């Protein structure tokens, strides 16, 4: 965060009068806090800091506006956003040895709201164990589940689904809040034939696949109904919520688009710690400078050695610990036309569904397609007998997520199919994000290190076996025609090849600026999110996760930002 705070994030907000596209429109370039990146976390911090009318905040967003971007508004159109476009940074990894040398795409949003403007909108908090591990490794009880739960409530605005269906038995109201800012809801369109088979499986296989009323209670194990950041049939992002109309008109909050920060400037030392006076950013080929009077900044860092760049602060952990969750898909053809495939393949049905959404924001376009999620653990004795340590945060934490969808996403044109996405939640494999150029505008070098650890591949094989058994339950027998691919009769080596050849990113890359205990000799930020060895320079986003949470990372990022904003306020009260 610059000035009082410099922060890095990217998300889309309605472009009202305080969202500018040209630097000359700004009333000035001197602010208390400069936030680098109007993303999931950046917009949260901007909102919370400007609750104090005495704080002035500038958000510098490298991407474009989210306003009017239909693919970001209509939940069903999310897949369109994850293609090369102006709304994407269009990043790709280096060749991955664990994926037989394949490169994989790493979608990152190039628009206001950041990844909250183009992610899958799935809302999972992870387990209480995850955050208790954060607290243990940092020595700060403020990162524990019990201490963070109020921040989950502060973020979340529970919203009834737009179809107004009876939601009793689909979630637990006691673990949710309707007083927050960002909309969270149950799906308003659940493809009932498929969804009913999934729920029936929990009744036929209750020991292996128990029903979980609410996966966001801190104990996610089991199978339950999907919750998403959707409100009134539209995506709810940090841009549409934290920069919504009631906030963006604040006189002390300004957002500048198309402004990519290149470096921190005006370095000096105060009380033995490095500090900075502002940031340099580019717009339209011209460099500009903004100074932050309070000097709290949040930036991503990269190794500088060998590139002719002088190092002001030596933090070897910068860019290390890169963690992403690998995902691969299993599919089955079915004898029902009530699938996403029928909608995608039939222009008439597609247009009718779009017309319904335009009229009332209801129908299949009001949801992103997933109906339920399941979380489960591997047997501890199975792990031990194969010489693996438990990579999870605790006994209530899952190793695997299964996402159920009434589609195979066009894998078999002309057919009707359903699928599950299998996610390895606690990968032991690690990678890095580095640079190979002295030009700050060149793309980073991303290595997610997928499947370089044997336990990650083992976890994937075990997940396949468990999912195949699920689809043998009686409820599926008159619905499924055949599996897509004969994995049931495959050897371990063949399963390994399937996983390596089909795995892609869940788009959950975190951890490259990990927090650690204040006296730790590793890590990038202290528990208060200040960069080690620096003053008034904070990193407030998903890069500070020391471990990835056992679920999707969106909810956890919001909570990091909510508490991070409070830490900044406390420092400057």
Automatic annotation (TrEMBL):
Residues 1-17 form the signal peptide. Keywords: FAD, Flavoprotein, Signal. It holds the Pfam family GMC_oxred_N. The active site is at 508 (proton donor), 552 (proton acceptor). Residues 427-561 form the Glucose-methanol-choline oxidoreductase C-terminal domain. The keyword Amino-acid biosynthesis does not apply. FAD binds at residue 261. Its cofactor is FAD. Residues 31-269 form the Glucose-methanol-choline oxidoreductase N-terminal domain. The keyword Lyase does not apply. GO terms for molecular function: flavin adenine dinucleotide binding; oxidoreductase activity, acting on CH-OH group of donors. InterPro entries: FAD/NAD-bd_sf, GMC_OxRdtase, GMC_OxRdtase_N, GMC_OxRtase_C. Belongs to the GMC oxidoreductase family. PANTHER family: CHOLINE DEHYDROGENASE, MITOCHONDRIAL (PTHR11552:SF147), GLUCOSE-METHANOL-CHOLINE GMC OXIDOREDUCTASE (PTHR11552). This is GMC oxidoreductase.
């Amino acid at each position: 965060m610059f000035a009082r705070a410099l922060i890095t994030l990217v998300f889309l907000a309605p472009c009202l009068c305080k969202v500018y596209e040209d630097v000359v429109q700004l009333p000035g370039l001197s602010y208390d806090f400069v936030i680098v990146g109007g993303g999931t976390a950046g917009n949260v911090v901007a909102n919370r800091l400007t609750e104090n009318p005495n704080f002035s905040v500038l958000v510098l967003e490298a991407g474009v506006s989210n306003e009017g971007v239909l693919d970001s508004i209509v939940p069903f159109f999310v897949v369109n956003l994850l293609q090369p476009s102006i709304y994407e940074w269009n990043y790709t990894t280096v060749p991955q040895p664990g994926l037989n040398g394949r490169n994989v795409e790493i979608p990152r949003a190039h628009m206001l709201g950041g990844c909250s403007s183009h992610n899958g909108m799935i809302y999972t908090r992870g387990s209480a164990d995850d955050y208790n591990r954060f607290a243990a490794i940092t020595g700060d009880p403020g990162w524990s589940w019990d201490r963070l739960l109020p921040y989950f409530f502060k973020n979340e605005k529970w919203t009834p689904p737009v179809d107004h269906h009876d939601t009793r038995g689909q979630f637990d109201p006691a673990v949710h809040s309707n007083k927050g800012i960002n909309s969270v809801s149950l799906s308003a369109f659940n493809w009932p034939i498929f969804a009913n088979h999934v729920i029936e499986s929990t009744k036929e296989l209750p020991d292996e696949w128990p029903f979980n009323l609410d996966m966001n209670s801190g104990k996610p194990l089991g199978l339950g109904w999907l919750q998403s950041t959707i409100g009134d049939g539209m995506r709810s992002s940090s841009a549409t919520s934290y920069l919504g109309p009631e906030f963006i008109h604040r006189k002390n909050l300004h957002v500048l688009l198309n402004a990519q920060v290149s470096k921190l400037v005006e370095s000096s030392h105060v009380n033995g710690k490095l500090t900075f006076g502002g940031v340099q950013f580019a717009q339209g080929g011209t460099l500009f400078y903004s100074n932050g009077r309070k000097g709290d900044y949040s930036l991503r860092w990269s190794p500088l050695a060998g590139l002719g760049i002088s190092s002001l602060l030596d933090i070897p952990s910068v860019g290390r610990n890169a963690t992403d969750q690998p995902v691969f898909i299993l599919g089955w053809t079915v004898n029902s036309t009530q699938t996403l495939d029928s909608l995608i393949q039939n222009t008439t049905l597609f247009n009718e569904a779009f017309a319904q959404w335009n009229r009332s924001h209801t129908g299949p376009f009001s949801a992103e397609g997933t109906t339920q999620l399941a979380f489960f653990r591997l047997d501890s004795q199975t792990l031990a007998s194969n010489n693996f340590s438990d990579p999870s945060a605790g006994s209530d934490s899952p190793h695997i997520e299964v996402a159920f969808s009434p589609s195979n996403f066009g894998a078999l044109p002309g057919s009707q199919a359903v699928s599950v996405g299998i996610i390895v939640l606690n990968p032991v494999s690690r990678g890095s994000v580095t640079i190979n150029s002295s030009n700050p505008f060149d793309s980073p070098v991303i290595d997610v290190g997928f499947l370089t650890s044997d336990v990650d591949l083992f976890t994937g094989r075990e997940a396949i076996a468990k999912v195949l058994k699920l689809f043998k339950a009686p409820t599926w027998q008159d619905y499924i025609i055949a599996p897509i691919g004969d994995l049931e009769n495959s050897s371990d080596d063949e399963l390994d090849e399937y996983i390596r050849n089909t795995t892609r990113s869940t788009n959950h890359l975190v951890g490259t600026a990990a927090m650690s205990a204040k006296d730790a000799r590793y890590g990038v930020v202290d528990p208060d999110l200040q960069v080690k060895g620096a003053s008034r320079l904070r990193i407030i986003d998903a890069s500070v996760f020391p471990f990835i949470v056992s679920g999707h990372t969106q909810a956890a990022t919001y909570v990091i930002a909510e508490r991070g904003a409070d830490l900044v306020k406390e420092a400057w009260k």
